[in-house]
Structures are given as C-alpha cells and as structure tokens.
C-alpha cells in the first residue's frame, strides 16, 4: 500500500514539474520571438531619387517584447515588396530602418475641402525660405493696412521759388494740389492651411526625389473657409481684401508650430 502511495506522489510531482517546465519554455519562447523589419544592408547607401531594389535590404530582427510602437511605423520585412521600385525621398545609410511615413508620393491635386476655396498670396523677400514650407503647414500673413491718400493744396503749402520734390518723387512746380500717400502699419492675419508652395503640392524633399520640376515658389496657396451661407470667414475676407488692394506687393509669412500628437 505504501508503495502505491509513493508511486502516486512521485507521478503527481512529475506531472506538476512537467507543467511548470512547459510554461517556462513557453514563456522563454515568447521572450525570444523575433519580428523582422526592413533595414538598409550593410555597406549600402541609397541616394535621394534612387529606386529601392531588393538587394538594398536585409531583415532586422528585434525581440517581440522590445518592439513597442515600432511595429506601427516601420515596414515589416515580409512586406518589403511594397517598397521595391519606389524612390527614396532622402539619403538612406547602412542599418537604417524603413519607416512608412517616409514612403510618400506628392499629391496629384490640391487638398481643398468642400467648404473651402483656394487663394494665392504673393510672398517673397530674403526672409522667406520656400523649402521650409510644405502643404499642410499652418501660416499667418503679415499684411499692410490699406493706404490712405491726402491732398495738399496751395493754401496749405505756399508756392516755392524753386521746384521741389514731393513725397512720391514727383516735381511740384506751381503749388498745385499734390497727393500724399500714407501706408498703415502691418498686422498678422491667419492662420491658414497651405495647399501649395508655388506649383509644389508636397514637401520639397518628396518633390525633388520624385523628379518634380523646379520653378518659382514665391506664391503660397492657402485654403479659405466658407460658412454655411457660402460667405468667407472674417480672416479669409480680410486676406483677400488686403492682397487685392492697389499697391500690394507681397506678404510676410509666419509659420506656426505643428501641434504635438496627443
């Protein structure tokens, strides 16, 4: 009898040990499970505009427990066929992981919503660097206030013995009425969403990589909101009025910071 009890106890302990061992091995297997991502092969450099080839890439294995959010942003090695033949938008070096957000193509049409309209604003000057701006960025424009015009007659300004130049650079020989133009102070109007930079509909990097044509980028296209009644909102109306006012040349540009992801 005692022998049977001993056998049963030994058998029970063996079963328990086997279960624990199986759980341990399963846990260890999960710890070393790998996920492979697309990475640039050692000794390989991919220039901007160059097409991705199969031989450019190798799998980069990362333990599953250490992947974190990388699985949501990086290209899996099993999906590498989705990037083959695409063009690089920037320089890639050895070991660099391929990220989905870098695999972009310039849009083929303006991004204008159903309650929006596009309006183009001349910008320029040494303070504007077009390559730093891209569609989707939010900007405000520095716009001068409307000009005021004053007339001076010969009662308020006596005739001079010699001709003199007035403020506009015109000679006033006889004291007849002259025009005095006053430019009001500038103010910022916005923000507005950029829909184009010159003829460019994407970032400067994507445009260069995909063989986009150059050209002047001294005009920013922006989206203006329309209300349910079809009328422009207050800032859009003011922008149009200032830009179309006589004597307008170009606007200054204020780039707003992108909101942080929540």
Describe it.
With 262 residues, the chain is α+β, with helices and mostly antiparallel strands. Helix content is 21%, strand content 25%. The chain is built from five helices and eleven strands, in the order αββααβββββββαβαβ. It has helices at 2-32, 64-67, 70-73, 204-209, 234-243; strands at residues 34-40, 57-63, 116-122, 138-144, 148-152, 164-165, 171-172, 178-182, 186-197, 219-225, 252-255. It has a five-stranded antiparallel sheet. A two-stranded antiparallel sheet has the order 1-2. Strands 5-8 form a two-stranded antiparallel ribbon. Strand 6 (164-165) and strand 7 form a beta hairpin. It is elongated, with a radius of gyration of 34 Å. The protein starts with a helix and ends in a 7-residue tail after the last strand.
Q: Going across the biggest sheet, name each strand in turn.
A: 3-10-9-4-11
Main sheet properties: 5 strands, antiparallel
Proportion of residues in β-strands: 15-25%
- Indicate the percent of residues in helices: 10-25%
Please provide a brief summary of the model.
This protein is of the alpha+beta class and 262 residues long. It has helices at residues 2-32, 64-67, 70-73, 204-209, 234-243, and strands at 34-40, 57-63, 116-122, 138-144, 148-152, 164-165, 171-172, 178-182, 186-197, 219-225, 252-255. Residues 158-169 have low confidence and may be disordered.
